Amino acid sequence: MTQTVARFKVDYYQFLKPDGTLVDDRQAPQVARDFDRLVELYELMSLTRVFDAKAVALQRTGQLGTYASSLGHEAAHVAIGAAMKHEDCLAPMYREYAAQFYRGVKMSEVLLYWGGDERGNNFSGPEHDFAWCVPIATQCLHAAGAAMAYKLKSEDRVAVSVVGDGGSSKGDFLEAINAGSAWKLPLVLIIMNNQWAISVPRSKQNTAATLAQKGIAAGLPSMQVDGNDLIACLWVMDNAIEAARSGRGSFVIEMITYRLSDHTTADDARRYRPDEEVEEAWEREPLKRLRTYLVNNGVWDEDKEEALLAECREAVDAAVEDYLDMVENNPQPVTAMFDHMFAELPHDLIEQRREAQRHEQEGGQL
Amino acid sequence: MTQTVARFKVDYYQFLKPDGTLVDDRQAPQVARDFDRLVELYELMSLTRVFDAKAVALQRTGQLGTYASSLGHEAAHVAIGAAMKHEDCLAPMYREYAAQFYRGVKMSEVLLYWGGDERGNNFSGPEHDFAWCVPIATQCLHAAGAAMAYKLKSEDRVAVSVVGDGGSSKGDFLEAINAGSAWKLPLVLIIMNNQWAISVPRSKQNTAATLAQKGIAAGLPSMQVDGNDLIACLWVMDNAIEAARSGRGSFVIEMITYRLSDHTTADDARRYRPDEEVEEAWEREPLKRLRTYLVNNGVWDEDKEEALLAECREAVDAAVEDYLDMVENNPQPVTAMFDHMFAELPHDLIEQRREAQRHEQEGGQL
Amino acid sequence: MTAITLIEGVTMALARAMEEDPSVVVLGEDVGVNGGVFRATAGLHERFGDDRVIDTPLAEVMIAGMSVGMSTQGIKPVAEAQFCGFTTPMLDHIMNHAARLRNRTRGRMSSPMVLRFPTGGGIHAPEHHSESPEALFAHTPGLRVVMPSSPSRAYGLLLAAIRDPDPVVFMEPKRIYRWVKEEVEDNGEELPMDVCYTLRDGDDITLVSWGAMIKETLQAADQLEAQGLGVEVIDVATISPLDMDTIIESVERTGRCVIIQEAPRHCSVASEIAAGLADAGIWHLQAPVKRVCGYDVTMPLYRNEMKYMPSVQRIVDAAQQVLEVS
Amino acid sequence: MTAITLIEGVTMALARAMEEDPSVVVLGEDVGVNGGVFRATAGLHERFGDDRVIDTPLAEVMIAGMSVGMSTQGIKPVAEAQFCGFTTPMLDHIMNHAARLRNRTRGRMSSPMVLRFPTGGGIHAPEHHSESPEALFAHTPGLRVVMPSSPSRAYGLLLAAIRDPDPVVFMEPKRIYRWVKEEVEDNGEELPMDVCYTLRDGDDITLVSWGAMIKETLQAADQLEAQGLGVEVIDVATISPLDMDTIIESVERTGRCVIIQEAPRHCSVASEIAAGLADAGIWHLQAPVKRVCGYDVTMPLYRNEMKYMPSVQRIVDAAQQVLEVS
Ligand SMILES: Cc1ncc(C[n+]2csc(CCOP(=O)(O)OP(=O)(O)O)c2C)c(N)n1
Ligand SMILES: Cc1ncc(C[n+]2csc(CCOP(=O)(O)OP(=O)(O)O)c2C)c(N)n1
Ligand SMILES: [Mg+2]
Ligand SMILES: [Mg+2]
Predict the structure, then answer these.
(1) Which atom of ligand 1 is nearest the CA belonging to D30?
(2) In sequence order, which ranges of chain D are alpha helices (DSSP H)?
(3) Do the chains contact at C110 and A343, CB–CB below 8 Å?
(4) Does the structure's ipTM exceed the value 0.90?
């Protein structure tokens, strides 16, 4: 005898179409009418895009190390930042700058990090936020741990983590989902599906209809959202975070977007994906549609746009200056690699630190 | 706008009720009428149970190391063995003796293994079958790799792996599911949900309705089956394995059973679970219901039962003798720990091997 | 004050630490109601409840990763790996995060957590239950690695580990969990985590070991002393940072050193100690530095495990070889 | 025959092995159409197709575990970890299965697979891209560990690794992927995986190193030779099993030894070599054995990475210190 014992579904959310009009005026959520918030976030998205172009340029001219661009992810990223409270905890992967800017991380700190200086990780964002995380998907378990800490301490805080379409294949992410379910943790796990994991397309990660359904594995509410639609991202994130905060457990959200840039500046995406795909993806990018929407609703115009871009360029230039000043005029001494290993330097490192210092003074360089 | 983009379900299969009658005569699958097969498997289940009791007794008298009993899992285990072809590959956890016996592993080899002698892993089952696997869930990826090998070589073979309710929380299992989906591997993954992972109950692994739904994460057909119902287990396994063999990808099957014994002989389950739960579980155990069914259908009786048990005891006693003879009269020399490390012993081990040999001759013992 | 075993020292330290610091939580597989497969957490669940003594799903990556996460947010996780062989899936989070968080963030964050687990062979356990992976942890910058060999050191060092502001790997030599009893006062006094412990003084030879091999090392010392020799026995106990000074100071007097460990030899802690002697200790050496180790093979299943581990005889032989050199 | 770089030696060996043995498959993240992030597998996908050059989902545990599985069923996986730092999640399957399968089953099964990955610092990469974890693998019984430092050794040793019936960890020093070009004939000839390679003869001092540090070691040797000293330079190349004989034979002549590695010092390969000298080589030593290593700290982000790694100056200093002893 057969008996169906469980049923599940994945819903997809989109409110703002690529052409900048609402899918359905009557069904649009309240946030679609919160123009102050939308304009504020549009400005941050724009700043992020200007920053991004500058960072790539810095790398091309040898002033920055490898850099991972966030081009095309701005709506999704900014929504993550905007939906969180300061006391919530963000465990990012490595390109969610807009979320971090919203939370207080400075552009110069992002540059410091990619500029090969650990001080970038000692950023101005919430001090309980995690730094950028290179080992893919490991951050998801750190977020689960943070959520567990909040739960144990009865604090009304939520942990949020982001993983890529590629990273969602990794056991760390899948175990984090399970942990969220096991302890009903205040945890929001976001799969940033930008269709590519370096050169590996989404279709090679697995053959499932969605990535969101990974949450079903552990019985978590799981949904897809148009990651280029700020309104949908905000709506989904606001709801998930507040539900998590109020004790309703963990959520899995797949944000569907597109990596418009190379994977990082060390990558050349033309080697593995057709130009047409990228061109087509540009049609759906998040800034243009939001701008159209704001213009259509009379809260944005050409002048504002021009002023904003000028402002962004200025802010970015100032950040670059701060960054370069830091690494050129105030570089870390060799001893910095010792001084943060432990709260108190153990005896063996005291000796090695002395040796390193001596060598630096002798100008010892490779 | 919301749009449902994917729907899933988990079905549960049961044909033979705990009281030994069919749930529904008309819906019973053909195998329910294949009495030759059912009797053969009943005999093997019985043998396994006799073996199991003996192994526990050996451990209690110091003649065997820690032993993991299979008490209560006999139907599920035997169905796994019976559904597979010789050329298929089994990657077991550590208690699926009945599956392995069906595939040619000798009882004396199981004893050798738990008796602390690697020769038990060099067993008489298919030489491409994996040995018992201690690091929980890792075997699932070995099975995925085997399935990949068969696929690459265009061989019509299926890999089968078993993991526990506890083990199903581990990234290895979850990554194996994903691999099965990514490459449409001929892979059948079985979650042997016996309600306990040592002292941790199923409910603490996660709060999902089923464990089967983990397969949905990667879009695999996923189902639950009464793991104490041989007919249902056979039907589900037969179908999954043949579907996998014919190119229809991977399957996730949750078999619901109960660990009637302690976790291993090193465990005392009374510390963490109530007697009533165990007593209640005995009501659903697999042998009795199958025996009733066979008796009701006129293919089994008291005499046969008695003869079978006598036969089983004899076979088990012979196996114990073989085992004891092996470890007592033909123990592995100290050099055995060197001789299988590499196809050819590297120079550093040649020296160490000599040293070990010298010490053994000197009678060097701790 | 009663006489307790090493594992009781562990339990006593856990209880003490949980009592004095509400942020301390114990987590792992079967650590709750069951009290741990070796009973190291026995009684803690009853005493401190579900929120402080946490049974986890069966997922080591998760245990390690969540411990890192918790440790950054004001919780002090004392995570248990059920056996040494199951720490391997934890290495990613331990090596790549716990050991690095403070340095990565220039001190903004840190990962004060303890990973404790039973280690070593000799209890007739299955595969992966009997390994000695201390070198893997000790090779990783940013970790402290500790292995006590007595009830009092188990108590004092575990307290120190839990109170330490950085991640500590605390390895428990399970073969001697119940070897000896010792009077240990539950006074909350920790022991330093950066010194070796000299168990016996002697001027003819230095035997260096740690963990369960201290047992055979002391027995070998007995045999050598019966021959009228002065044997210094050093329990390394704190493997990282390694207190080479104490060892070199001893070898300065004895001129001879044998290092005993259960782990395989290649690139091991014993190698590190010998290398330290080949550098700063070279002028004191009157004989080759011998390492008596597990062989460089997989720990055998239990019928042959004792033949894998250094025996008293092998230690005595090595010592005599070293002593014969004049 | 054309002059090729080290990484081209890798690619040439991969192509050769795939050509001669249809069971060889290459798998990993971005190894397919993209040809690997360093281009080590460039051209292979075009030439051998989807079934032989396999892009995997992003899951290192899976890559390692499936490679073990495949290797037992007649496929020879050559798995790539994209960077050294991402081998950590693979350790469980490599240490607990690949290294053990043959022994576990008394030879019934084995795990002939290769795990290859770029290692070491100096290319201005992000965190976790610049580590030198050879000691972790070398400490594990059952694994061969190889690290070439020249195009010809990359070619010959990788061929040997792929043809070997047991698991081999093949580490590629990415800083010197394109350092020198060398004429290497694609003749299918493998090199032995159990000997050190002596790059220069000399009677005053022995410098022992491997991987990318061979570059600085040779430069240090140049400086020392300019002072009229005879410098023997040994490229260990095959870290496990370690050919101590060649090293001891050299030190027998020179009496002095400096070991240079990028990895941190504690419980490292350098420690093993020094320990070997403290034992079997003790009577030849005329001076302390010095190890010039990465410091026992986390590899810094790129602005300071060169200050972490042994510089030519540090090597020369150590050599001079050792040479001063009379
Ligand atoms: C564990 C691990 N493996 C491999 C890498 C190398 N790597 C860096 S980014 C990346 C692809 C990530 O793709 P995805 O998860 O989709 O995120 P995206 O970069 O597209 O945002 C890979 C393979 C890594 N950083 N960590
Ligand atoms: C990776 C790993 N962690 C921990 C253990 C110790 N251990 C052995 S069996 C077991 C419980 C397994 O429970 P489950 O997966 O439900 O299988 P069952 O024993 O119930 O059949 C544990 C924790 C192990 N063998 N491997
Ligand atoms: Mg992606
Ligand atoms: Mg179970």
Answers:
(1) 23
(2) 6-20, 44-48, 60-71, 91-93, 101-104, 134-138, 151-163, 213-226, 244-254, 269-279, 305-308, 312-324
(3) yes
(4) yes
Taking the C-alpha atoms of residue C109 and residue A123, their distance in angstroms, rounded to an integer, is: 11
CB within 8 Å of C319: residues ≥ 6 apart: C205, C207, C220, C224, C231, C256, C258, C290
Q: Cβ D68–B91 below 8 Å, yes or no?
A: no
Structure tokens of B302?
């008291």
DSSP-derived letter for residue C94 is I
Closest CA to A229 of A161, A292, A279: A292
Tokens of D25: 């498959």
Cα–Cα dist B346/A3, whole Å:
59
State the DSSP string of B112-165. Answer: HHHTT-GGGGS-SS-TTSPPP--STTHHHHHHHHHHHHHHHTT----EEEEEET
Q: Determine, for residues C267 and D272 on separate chains, whether the beta-carbon distance falls below 8 Å.
A: yes
How many A from CA of C65 to the centre of ligand 1?
A: 18
> Which residues of chain D lie closer than 8 angstroms to C298, CB-CB?
99-100, 103-104, 141-142
Gap between the Cα atoms of B217 and A195, Å rounded: 18
Q: How far is CA B202 from the centre of its chain?
A: 18
The partner residue sitting opposite B206, judged by closest CB among A6, A24, A219, is: A219
B2 confidence band (pLDDT: 50, 70, 90): confident
Contacts of B273 (CB under 8 A, 6+ apart): B196, B199, B201
| Distance between CA atoms of residues D220 and D233, nearest Å | 10
- Residues lower than pLDDT 50 in chain A: 365-366
pLDDT at D271: 98
- Reply yes or no on whether the pLDDT at D172 is more than 70: yes
D264 vs C267: CA distance, rounded Å? 12
The confidence band for D2, taking pLDDT boundaries of 50, 70 and 90, is confident
Q: Is B191 in the pocket of ligand 2 (CB under 6 A)?
A: no
Amino acid present at A271: R
Identify the burial level of D59 via C-beta atoms within 10 angstroms of its C-beta, where 0-12 means exposed, 13-18 middle and 19 or more buried. buried
Q: Which residues contact B270 (CB under 8 A, 6 or more apart)?
A: none
pLDDT digits (tens, 9 = 90+) for D64-113: 999 999 999 999 999 999 999 999 999 999 999 999 999 999 999 999 99
Does the CB atom of residue B136 touch ligand 2 within 6 A? yes
For chain C, the average pLDDT equals 98
Cβ of A346 under 8 Å from any chain D Cβ?
Answer: no
CA distance B316 to B66: 18
**Cut 0.80: pTM above it:** yes
Contact, B137 vs B168, CB < 8 A?
Answer: yes
Which tokens is B18 given? 């705990």
**Partner-chain contact B131 D96, CB within 8 Å:** no
Helix (H) or strand (E) holding C206: strand C205-209
pLDDT at B9: 97
Q: Give the model confidence (pLDDT) of A4-20 as tens digits.
A: 999 999 999 999 999 99
**Alpha helix positions (H), C227-325:** 244-254, 269-279, 305-308, 312-324
Q: What is the pLDDT of residue B27?
A: 87
CB C112 within 8 A of CB C160: no
Q: What are phi and psi of A272, to 5 degrees?
A: -135, -5
With H, G, I as helix, E, B as strand and everything else as coil, classify residue B302: helix
- Whether the per-residue pLDDT at B366 is higher than 60: the answer is no
Testing ligand 1's pocket by substitution, the residue of A96, A136, A196, A200 carrying the most ligand atoms inside 8 A of its CB is A136
**Which two three-digit tokens encode residue C255?**
């001129």
Pocket flag, ligand 1, residue A39 (CB < 6 Å):
no
HSE toward the beta carbon, residue D15, CA cutoff 13 A: 17
